[in-house]
UniProtKB/TrEMBL annotation, chains A, B:
Domain called CMP/dCMP-type deaminase: residue spans: 2-113
Domain of life where this protein originates: Bacteria
Similarity field: Belongs to the cytidine and deoxycytidylate deaminase family. ADAT2 subfamily.
Cited HAMAP family: tRNA_aden_deaminase
Names of the cofactor(s): Zn(2+)
Broad class of enzyme this protein falls into: hydrolase
Catalytic activity: adenosine(34) in tRNA + H2O + H(+) = inosine(34) in tRNA + NH4(+)
Single GO molecular function: zinc ion binding
Coiled coil (residue ranges): none
Protein name: tRNA-specific adenosine deaminase
Annotated residues for binding of Zn(2+): 53, 83, 86
Record keywords: Hydrolase, Metal-binding, tRNA processing, Zinc
């Protein structure tokens, strides 16, 4: 069944690709209102683009293929709680629902440092579900940073 | 003399291009540490990209030409106070200084709704100067929205 766990598993596969590329392992899947699935992974270092978080990449790609700067009715799956930049883009794109895995106590802007997606002063508030496959999503990140510290 | 007013005037010319394209008139200039100037304007509707704010476009382009996801020592000039998305990207890109024109009481994330760029929980705080050519920057926006209401 194509439920939240199903889609988060696909986002996790994307996060694994990021790790293989020595990028912080975060993956995302954007499910558009027409059922189209757009997948991507974090890649700022390899793409030379400070904005190339997994969420930004699926949002930009979905806008491109939809020929629309708004993605009404879409659902974003992402393995890590979005940061300020990505939360802002989610609001701009009018994404309908956001499902994330692990919380991010350092830079999370949905529930940790900020609560951007429920800020009623902004002109859109998506539905939010956190903690889907949180352990798997978090373990991938922890393993990545542990291995990087060992290399350093 | 190439001072803040000089660069903000160039950003204003970019904002005028946005207005001519029926986009909210915001313009930006990113001055890199080596003196390179990267200019762009707001274009989410015409580019089909929710993230295509003027700031994001100059950051992405500067990263591309620098082949670096960090823009240490750069100064960003932008005609309007950055939003959450752009403020987040400014932090990620490690931009050294941000100079903006008009404040944005609705979505500004530097001094109005949020104070992202001075949040010491995040791992970078650029120097900030607001209010440079604020009247010209704000008048361009007000004129744009007035003319759009008249058309509607």
């Amino acid at each position: 069944m194509k439920d939240d766990t199903f889609y988060m598993n696909l986002a996790l596969q994307q996060a694994e690709i990021a790790a293989e590329n020595d990028e912080v392992p975060v993956g995302a899947l954007l499910l558009l209102a027409d059922g189209t699935e757009v997948l991507s992974h974090n890649a700022p270092i390899s793409l030379h683009d400070a904005s190339a978080h997994a969420e930004m990449r699926v949002i930009r790609e979905a806008c491109r293929i939809s020929e629309n700067y708004r993605l009404t009715g879409s659902t974003l799956y992402v393995t890590l709680e979005p940061c300020l930049m990505c939360a802002g883009a989610i609001v701009h794109a009018r994404i309908g629902r956001v499902v994330y895995g692990a919380g991010d106590p350092k830079t999370g802007a949905v529930a940790s440092l900020y609560e951007v997606l429920s800020d009623e002063r902004l002109n859109h508030q998506p539905e939010v579900t956190g903690g889907v496959l949180a352990d798997q999503c978090g373990d991938l990140l922890k393993g990545f940073f542990r291995s990087r510290r060992q290399k350093a």
